[in-house]
Design brief:
five-stranded parallel sheet, 2 domains, about 375 residues, seven-stranded parallel sheet, alpha/beta, Rossmann fold
């Protein structure tokens, strides 16, 4: 029977289950093993046991509880993402939709969060079988990278930004005094964005952001940033204006495009297929910025797994925009910025804390669309 990894020489998605409950481990094992495209390669009662099993063989996906003996799941998740990034699905009774713990899990690098009830977990898992299998399969395609020299590239068709917005032959946008900063980030990006946005002054150019994050979490994330920053930060709504002193974050599960009407920039929120296996996609945001803002824009690609945004940043550069990539040392995962640098999409490669300063200087000196090093 065909499965989602037939394109990778018929390999199954290898899953490691980490949970201190024997009932949960057994139930998840049975559910995931029932799918012909998934192989459970092991279970672990706590992170220390899991770490030993990962040394024996790196899974494609890890399911992880939060409340466990010896080390909590969030701490273990952070260690995984800083040492050997693996797609992680959090499965915990502490992660109600939009909860502080769930948001912390996403911020720490989890691909998805499944909330399990305190009681009746076995029945819940059995009733949610299809959803759990789909979440694990989606997680297995969450990034393209290399771990310990082993390729994790998925062979399934990977749509480009063409699926949402055609690439223009040439940007014909007339220059305006209004500017746009387009930012893309993934794993490690929630903390990187906090550092960047906290440093932005109230009169900074309008900012449009795609941070890879599941549906229902971007609103809480934007609200938290808004409470910390001088500028306004909000989850974007369709036709929201991109204004000075405002940062708009694409809602999870939907693409966000930069559009222009006269001298006014605004965002369009749109449904559509996964692009670079993400929705929202950084490539979609960057392509729209190339088309509708051109040299009036700056593109910034930050820490994250995979290559979403690399081609889009190159399109922005070709349209006359200034482009910046976060450097390897300050990135949690150097996938996205590394790919952008590799194809020549970045004018500048900067440490995280220098990016905000650079953006402020570019805006202050009217250097949008020009390459200059500070």
């Amino acid at each position: 029977m065909a499965n989602e990894k037939e394109g990778r020489m018929g390999e199954k998605i290898k899953v490691l289950i980490v949970d201190d409950s024997a009932v949960v481990r057994q139930t998840l094992n049975e559910i995931l093993s029932s799918d012909p495209g998934i192989e459970v390669i092991g279970t672990a009662a706590d992170p220390f046991i899991a770490a030993e099993k990962i040394k024996e063989g790196i899974p494609d996906v890890l399911t992880l509880d939060i409340e466990m003996p010896r080390m909590d799941g969030i701490t273990f998740l952070k260690k995984i993402m800083s040492q050997h990034p693996i797609p992680v699905v959090i499965c915990s009774s502490l992660t109600g939709q939009g909860s502080e713990t769930a948001l912390k899990a996403i911020e720490s690098g989890a691909v998805e969060v499944i909330h399990k009830p305190h009681l009746g977990a076995k029945q819940f898992f059995e009733e949610s079988k299809i959803h759990i299998v789909d979440v694990v399969k989606a997680a297995s395609m969450a990034h393209v990278g290399r771990l310990n020299g082993r390729s994790l590239c998925r062979a399934e068709p990977k749509l480009t930004a063409d699926a949402v917005l055609n690439k223009p032959a040439k940007s014909s946008m007339v220059e305006t005094t209004e500017r746009v900063v387009a930012i893309g980030a993934s794993t490690g990006g929630t903390e990187a964005l906090r550092v960047l946005l906290e440093a932005m002054p109230a009169d900074c150019p309008g900012i449009a952001i795609v941070q890879h994050m599941p549906e229902h979490f971007t609103a809480a994330f934007a609200k938290r940033l808004d409470s910390l920053c001088t500028i306004e930060v909000k989850e974007a709504e369709d036709r929201d204006s991109i204004l000075r002193g405002r940062a708009l974050i694409a809602p999870g599960g939907r693409h966000m495009l930069v559009k222009r009407s006269g001298a006014r920039y605004y965002v369009e929120i749109r449904n559509g297929p996964l692009v670079c296996r993400h929705r929202p996609s950084v490539d979609v945001l960057f392509r729209s910025a190339a088309r509708y803002a051109g040299r009036n824009a700056v593109g910034v690609i930050m820490t994250g797994m995979g290559d979403d945004g690399a081609k889009g940043l190159l399109e922005m550069k070709e349209a006359g925009a200034s482009t910046i990539a976060q450097d390897e040392e300050s990135s949690v995962v150097f996938g996205m910025p590394g790919e952008a640098i590799k194809i020549g999409a970045a004018d500048k490669v900067l440490p995280l804390r220098a990016i905000a300063e650079n953006l402020i200087l570019i805006a202050k000196n009217g250097l949008f669309g020009r390459v200059r090093r500070f």
